[in-house]
Design a protein that fits this description.
38% helix, alpha+beta, 4-stranded antiparallel beta sheet
Length: 738
């Protein structure tokens, strides 16, 4: 795999660190504008200086000729807007006025930027001493010598800053930017070439268009051969898009102002050849009540609570008769099995528009942990099949928390789709791709989650409240059980089979399903015959079982029937709608802080946490043990330990009898009369998004446990016997293949 990356968070962080000098001196909303404006000025000035030096070396006297810059897609920057002018005024009281005048000078040179650039630097609310310090950092510490090679620099930096603001402010960051490798995947699949119209109805900072132009140039296309249309509702982001494209000399029609795409479509007659988009995920309150009779809802009126299928239908409406589109969408749109969204998806599939679905790995996006997929829609498909691709095993980490696709990953995805478009149907690859017929899709009730079709692909997080098919997984597990024949486990496997333990457990689990337990044993050899695959499958089924019981509330009632599906009584609670006899509590009431020190005790091993749990430090980590171990905190079996390591939420339950951890860890005893400790850990991992509020930013890059949030966090308390039964089944499932 190539080491080449499509983005680099190091540069964004460098700019963010510089920007943080301003933190606390101005309101957050203004702060973003100030920083982006400085990035813009620094960027165009660096590009100008580089071109200026080239022209001076050529010696033809064109260094002051505006055309010599525009022909290379470089802004001509007048003297008053050049960075050396700004830098020389950094420590004067007039620095704010100097920057505002620079912005006006740039706008006067480019009509597309009129009233777009921020001009608030002379504001009395902005401390000029601090502003000068930021200018110094941009002058001395920020290298922009290779800015022309950056992909959507401003968009990347802007989105990174938005994510940081969201983390600091405790709110969800908006979707202002699509990571470069995701955009490149869309473009490489769609391949927008000359004489076409490209549209993005929620264009953010304009990265889709930037990458489309890069693709065109790479294939010897002409600048200007693509007509660009976009729309953006956020005024700051709309201005960002205009800046981003103006830097590259791309003419774009973003409308005369920012506007909401649903309620004020600025391109009502547009029929685009290519649409590339990353709409806001699961947007609520999108204006359905005023758009009931809208012509765009060909397949049904989208629900007021979620705009996913409003976005899809809006884009289909704007697609030309031969048009293609790719859009990033939350995974719930793939599998929801009831209501308006299901009916709309069913009609779109039956209308033969969906060409391919590509599930994406986690950690591709800065500001959200929602699982997403790419829908590729083609109005001129060759057949009625759909290609499914699972990319969760692709990509590589570029930081502790961020992943991206390599060029080889992108080529693998694009080549597979292009082969399918060319009529190749032999594309069934375990764990990666599968071609499914319309009949297969109908049999699965038009669920188009790739994990429903690709052998060896299970996406437990897709299950949620929409999937109640545990029976299929028990069937698959039973098939694996029969084909596992490894020498190390064969004797134990056959012994369990002889004593009937597996049949007993299947009978116990059969109450999950409307089908009988013995119907699960009708199909074999669905997965590779190896222990590792079986263990992965077991964990996925266990997670799915958790969702089935504790999220869908389809646990077995006293009659062995599925509770919610058999009209089990529900009630309102602080947690939401829950079964009538279940309870809730706060984590603060469940956990008791422990600070007991090792002291003079000897031979107490030291432990540490990862994002997978608690492990002996000596065997798991390449770190020396703590020298002053007597100051370590004692941990005992059943304790939950939180270890905030930079940007990763590390926690786990101690499963050994006794140990110790560094004093920096947070240790809590769990009230085991209310909650099985290991059940709580499973609960927190499966419902991780819900528990992320327990962490908050700490010193430098780190994060700490938010003890106030811990004290008020409401959690679900299922009956203890049901917790124990779940953990027993989880344990038995794992033991089958150990």
């Amino acid at each position: 795999m190539s080491d080449k990356t499509n983005s680099n968070t190091g540069f964004e962080k460098q700019l963010w660190d510089a920007a943080c000098v301003l933190w606390g001196h101005i309101p957050a909303a203004e702060y973003r504008k100030v920083i982006i404006g400085l990035i813009f000025l620094r960027y165009i000035s660096a590009a100008f200086d580089k071109r200026y030096d080239e022209l001076v070396k050529e010696g033809d006297g064109f260094e002051d000729d505006r055309d010599a810059y525009s022909m290379e897609n470089v802004f001509f920057v007048p003297q008053e807007a050049r960075w050396n002018t700004i830098a020389s005024a950094a420590h004067t009281p007039e620095i704010g006025v100097v920057i505002d005048n620079a912005m006006r000078a740039i706008e006067s040179e480019n009509s597309a930027l009129k009233n777009v650039l921020p001009k608030n630097y002379a504001s009395p609310d902005l401390d000029k001493r601090v502003l000068g310090e930021v200018v110094d950092i941009f002058t001395n510490n920020i290298d922009m010598s290779n800015t022309e090679e950056s992909e959507d620099l401003l968009g990347r930096t802007y989105e990174y800053c938005i994510a940081q603001f969201a983390a600091y402010e405790g709110v969800k960051g908006g979707e202002f930017y699509t990571p470069s490798s995701v955009v490149k995947t869309l473009v490489e699949v769609l391949q927008p070439l000359e004489n076409c119209r490209v549209y993005d109805p929620c264009c953010g900072s304009g990265g889709m268009f930037v990458q489309s132009y890069k693709f065109l140039r790479a294939h010897n296309g002409r600048r200007g051969a693509i007509s660009v249309y976009g729309q953006e509702s956020n005024p700051d982001t709309w201005k960002m898009a205009k800046m981003n494209l103006a830097i590259r000399g791309i003419d774009a029609d973003f409308g005369p102002y920012q506007a909401d795409t649903f309620t004020n479509d600025l391109h009502p007659t547009l029929k685009a050849d290519y649409i590339l988009a990353n709409p806001p995920f699961n947007l609520s309150n999108w204006g359905q009540d005023s758009l009931i009779d809208d012509v765009r809802w060909k397949y049904g009126i989208p629900p007021a609570s979620n705009a996913n299928f409003a976005w899809i239908q809006h884009m289909i409406h704007h697609l030309s008769p031969n048009g293609k589109m790719g859009l990033v969408l939350a995974n719930t749109a793939l599998s929801i099995g009831t209501g308006e969204e299901y009916e709309i998806r069913k009609k779109i599939v039956e209308d033969n528009l969906v060409e391919a679905i590509v599930s994406l790995p986690a950690q591709l996006f800065y500001s959200t942990k929602i699982k997403v997929s790419i829908w590729f829609i083609n109005k001129k498909k060759r057949n009625t099949d759909i290609l499914f691709i699972d990319t969760r095993n692709l990509g590589h980490m570029i930081s502790r928390t961020m992943k991206e696709f390599s060029d080889e990953d992108i080529a693998k995805i694009a080549d597979c789709i292009h082969q399918f478009q060319a009529g190749e149907n032999n594309l069934n690859n375990v764990g990666f791709s599968k071609v499914a017929s319309l009949e297969e899709i109908r049999e699965k009730k038009h669920n188009i989650s790739p994990s429903k079709y690709i052998l060896g692909s299970i996406e437990a997080d897709e299950i949620g409240e929409y999937l109640n098919e545990i029976d299929e997984d028990i069937e698959e597990l039973s098939s694996m059980q029969r084909v596992v024949n490894g020498a190390q486990i064969y004797s134990k496997y056959t012994k369990q089979l002889r004593v009937g333990s597996i049949e007993t457990l299947i009978d116990e689990v059969s109450c999950l399903s409307a089908m009988g337990a013995h119907d699960f044993l009708c199909e074999a050899d669905k997965v590779e015959e190896n222990r590792k695959a079986a263990l992965i499958k077991v964990r996925d089924i266990s997670d799915k079982l958790f969702k089935h019981w504790f999220i869908d509330f389809n646990f077995p009632n006293e009659k062995g029937l599925l509770y919610k599906l058999n009209d089990g009584k529900l009630k309102e609670s602080e947690y939401g709608i829950i079964p009538f006899d279940w309870n809730t509590c706060t984590m603060g009431s469940l956990l008791v802080a422990s600070s007991e020190k090792v002291g003079e005790r000897e031979n107490i091993p030291e432990y540490s946490t990862t994002n997978q749990g608690v492990f002996p430090r000596a065997s798991k980590f390449n770190k020396s043990l703590t020298q002053n171990a007597n100051k370590n905190k004692v941990i005992v079996k059943g304790d939950i330990i939180f270890g905030m390591s930079r940007e990763i939420f590390n926690f786990g339950v101690m499963v050994d009898e006794i140990g110790s951890v560094s004093p920096a860890y947070h240790v809590y005893h769990i009230d085991s009369s209310v909650m099985n400790p290991e059940f709580l850990e499973v609960y927190m991992r499966i419902c991780s998004d819900y528990f992320l509020s327990l962490i908050k930013p700490g010193a430098r890059e780190g994060q700490v446990l938010d003890k106030e949030e811990l004290s008020r966090k409401v959690i679900l308390c299922p009956p203890k016997e049901l917790q124990e039964k779940y953990m027993l089944i989880r344990k038995h499932m794992t033991e089958w293949f150990m």
